[in-house]
Design brief:
Helix content: 25-40%
Shape: elongated
Number of domains: 2
Strand content: 15-25%
Number of strands: 21
Length: 578
């Protein structure tokens, strides 16, 4: 394993970071004095996706052999001389050279038996698991538990036929090492003080690769623990980090995000195993009814509610320029982005005032933000800023290919949207206010800071935003930037979008500071964000702004946090003095 792989191994605890492999749905975690093997499925909790409830390895003297080492390519049980590794994306191989044994507790085995070397977890991605043992000299089945003893050799089990037939544990070890070796060879070079966490974040991106059935492309999911699909917004941030080491994989994320627009140009919220999520009608009936009850105050509540994500498609596409050499692909991708931009103005301006709104919190990416405590639809300054930036990028693209009329149209619309955005400023409160169904929302949140992204705010407003960022009662928490101002009644240091720090928000704010003429402050926020992830122990979904630690309910090994750490680390390393 490379130096980057060795650095990443320091973080692999089998709890916040499971043992897995690029392209695999299989996850191995600690449990009950041994390990548990689960499967990553769309919209299913891990405790519903059990392949092996517990796996325990025993040394020759009959004592449990604890895990002694975890590496990207293998788990070691030194006392028994045994290792566990992947044998392709759908199989696991367990083997050793001395006498040892293994005990597997398999759900439903008592009812199904070991029929022809199989058991049936009946999961969408694993209707059947097959297994084969080599060198076993004893096999005992009691209820749901299987115990096998070996004099060398070992056991392989896997989804479908992946566990059947002859196998070689040494060959599986070598192949797994090769997979991870190839991945870590792509890990970007960064400053020494950032190298350990960058290697771990690069591991997270590799670990979160899955194949979506029938898509023909690899998705880097937000997390194999809870988020098994390609969310549009996540794909953009993930591509921004991947471009530094694997630009083709970065392109695949955008290809998937752009592959299923509706006839009117709307991009779906999620691309997943069973299809797409583009409206409330794509949800289970119970979820659909809940969404409609919380639906728009203007749109027909009985009609499907479009579900998408904020318009950062051009932002993401521009980041791949210079990394991917495929002009025809860029032509098609920019056309998709242009159609999606038209959708926002034609179909999400629900009150017809020229400023598109979020028709549902899901489409904002900030589902639990207090701005959505208001009546829907919500006009929000972050959406205005994204639309301005996207129109300006479309104008730049159109001009570069000689489409001056289109460039002028996009630029004029950006100017109009900027004018409408400036009307959202509340001079008394000193921030941009959202409004719900036309009524101003009192909540002061990070969406009020994101208009910095335009780089076009009057300096007076920029100065007021900087004051908010410097105020300990607002956004200058010990670990900034909180997603809700600390003095706001809705502030919580733990509850998702109601106070915790998110790496993507910080990254966008840093970009906005630079665009608004404050590059030193932008660099300082980048460095602070990098320190936050290091202090918190990894690229978690979100962080407590008072302690800098993972918030209690945040997912670990989170895709966009990992990708943006890589992106910011590369940026910070380039900015550092030689």
């Amino acid at each position: 394993m490379s130096a980057a792989g060795d650095r990443a191994a320091r973080f692999l605890d089998l709890e916040s970071a499971p043992f897995t492999s690029p392209g695999s749905r299989i996850l191995v975690l600690r449990a009950d004095g041994g390990l548990t093997v689960r499967l990553a499925e769309y919209e299913r909790r891990l405790d519903e996706c059990v392949l092996v409830r517990t796996l325990r390895v025993y040394a020759a003297d009959g004592r449990i052999a604890p895990v002694s080492g975890v590496h990207p390519d293998r788990i070691e049980f030194a006392e028994a001389g045994v290792t566990l590794t992947f044998d392709g994306p759908a199989g696991l191989s367990l083997g050793g050279d001395a006498r040892w044994s293994v005990e597997l507790e398999v759900p439903g085995l008592a009812d199904a038996g070991l029929d022809a070397g199989t058991w049936r977890p009946e999961l969408p991605s694993a209707a059947e698991v097959s297994w084969v043992a080599a060198g076993a000299d004893d096999l005992v089945v009691r209820g749901d538990t299987v115990r096998l003893s070996f004099a060398g050799a070992g056991l392989r089990f896997g989804i479908g036929a992946a566990g059947a037939g002859a196998f070689s544990h040494p060959a599986a070890l070598a192949a797994s090492a090769s997979v991870w070796g190839d991945w870590f060879a792509r890990c970007p070079a960064v400053r020494d003080d950032l190298a350990d966490m960058t290697a771990f974040c690069w591991w997270v991106l590799g670990a979160n690769i899955v194949s979506l059935p029938g898509r023909g492309l690899r998705a880097v999911v937000p997390s194999k623990i809870g988020y098994v699909g390609l969310w549009q917004w996540d794909a953009y941030f993930i591509a921004a980090g991947l471009r530094h080491g694997d630009p083709e994989l970065a392109r695949e994320q955008l290809e998937l995000a752009f592959a299923f627009p509706t006839p009117d140009g709307q991009l779906p919220d999620v691309v997943h195993d069973e299809g797409i999520l583009a409206s409330s009608d794509d949800l289970p009936p119970g979820d659909r009814d809940n969404l409609r009850r919380a639906g728009s105050a203007i749109a027909d509540p009985a009609a499907p509610i479009p579900l998408t994500k904020p318009p950062l498609a051009a932002w993401a596409l521009r980041r791949l320029e210079g990394f991917v050499d495929d002009p025809a692909w860029f032509d098609d991708a920019w056309e998709t982005v242009a159609r999606s931009q038209e959708w926002w103005f034609a179909h999400s301006d629900l009150d017809g005032d020229g400023m598109p709104e979020y028709g549902h919190p899901y489409s904002s990416g900030l589902d639990d933000s207090p701005v959505f405590d208001a009546e829907l639809p919500v006009a929000s300054p972050d959406l205005a800023a994204y639309l301005i930036v996207q129109d300006e990028l479309l104008a730049s693209r159109a001009s570069s290919v000689g489409e001056e009329a289109a460039a002028s149209r996009y630029a004029a619309r950006a100017d109009r949207t900027l004018s409408l955005l400036e009307r959202m400023w509340d001079d008394t409160g000193g921030y941009f206010r959202s409004s719900g169904a036309g009524t101003p929302v009192a909540a002061e949140t990070a969406v009020s800071l994101l208009p910095l992204l335009t780089g076009r705010l009057p300096e007076r407003l920029v100065a007021r935003i900087l004051n908010a960022l410097d105020d300990p009662e607002r956004f200058a928490t010990l670990w900034a930037v909180p997603t809700v101002a600390r003095h706001d009644p809705a502030f919580s240091d733990e509850r998702m979008w109601r106070g915790p720090v998110w790496v993507n928000v910080n990254a966008l704010l840093a970009e906005g500071l630079a665009a608004s003429g404050h590059p030193d402050r932008a660099r300082a926020l980048v460095e602070q964000t990098l320190r936050l992830v290091q202090h918190g122990g990894g690229p978690h979904e979100y962080f407590n702004p008072l302690t800098g630690q993972k918030a209690r309910t945040a997912t670990t090994a989170f895709g966009w946090s990992a990708a943006l750490f890589v992106d910011l680390a590369v940026q910070a390393s380039a900015d550092s003095p030689a």
